[in-house]
Design a protein that fits this description.
Helix content: 40-55%
Strand order of the largest sheet: 3-2-1-4-5
Oligomer: single chain
Structural class: alpha/beta
Number of strands: 5
Order of helices and strands: EEEHEHEHHHHH
Largest sheet: 5 strands, mixed
Radius of gyration: 26 Å
Length: about 190
């Protein structure tokens, strides 16, 4: 019987595949290197078959490549796969779990993102990380300055140079030097 559904466990260097026919009988189990797995799919799996993977950043790219070759690709969130893993977690078992999970009638799938959508997501994550770092640095400055600091990053930026230049600020030269370094680092990141 031809393969109708394939689960693929995406890894750094080796991909495991698990393919079944329309009667859920195992037709193919394989282990392929990253640069050869797509050719193996094209050779063994007929166009129009369903191919499932665990949703991750690289799986969206791989899904687009499979769709371009005529396959129906389904991505499954990791939290929905754990209940289908039957034994010790490894690539072969994960591929089988993905294959089984995608055959369930009420399984929820992740939409495949376009390159533009992934770019937007990356920009949001980078910005979020930068804001978190800035907030952390501001809180560190507030904790080390030894004064009541104003609320808000803009007010802190305005007040800090005045505090550092104040000759009677009560800060030692070592702390002044450290605080000035924090301030200069926060200013360069803000640009």
């Amino acid at each position: 019987m031809p393969i109708s559904r394939v689960g693929v466990d995406v890894a750094k260097s080796v991909f495991h595949v698990h393919g079944v026919d329309h009667h859920d009988q195992v037709e193919w189990r394989g282990k392929h290197k990253r640069d050869r797995w797509l050719d193996a799919i094209v050779k063994r799996v007929p166009m129009g078959a369903e191919i499932g993977m665990e949703a991750c950043a690289s799986s969206h790219h791989l899904a687009r490549a499979l769709q371009a070759r005529g396959y129906h690709v389904k991505l499954i969130a990791a939290q929905f796969l754990t209940s289908y893993v039957k034994s010790n977690k490894n690539g072969r078992v994960d591929a089988e779990a993905i294959c089984e999970a995608m055959g369930r009638p009420h399984m929820r799938f992740v939409a495949i993102k376009s390159v533009a959508q992934q770019d937007v997501q990356a920009a949001h994550r980078i910005r979020s990380e930068l804001v978190q770092q800035r907030t952390s640095k501001a809180n560190q400055i507030r904790g080390l300055i030894g004064r009541v600091a104003p609320t808000g990053i803009g007010q802190l930026r305005a007040a800090l140079p005045c505090w550092l230049e104040d000759a009677e600020n009560g800060l030692t030269n070592a702390r002044l030097e450290g605080m000035n370094g924090l301030f200069q680092g926060a200013r360069s990141r803000a640009r």
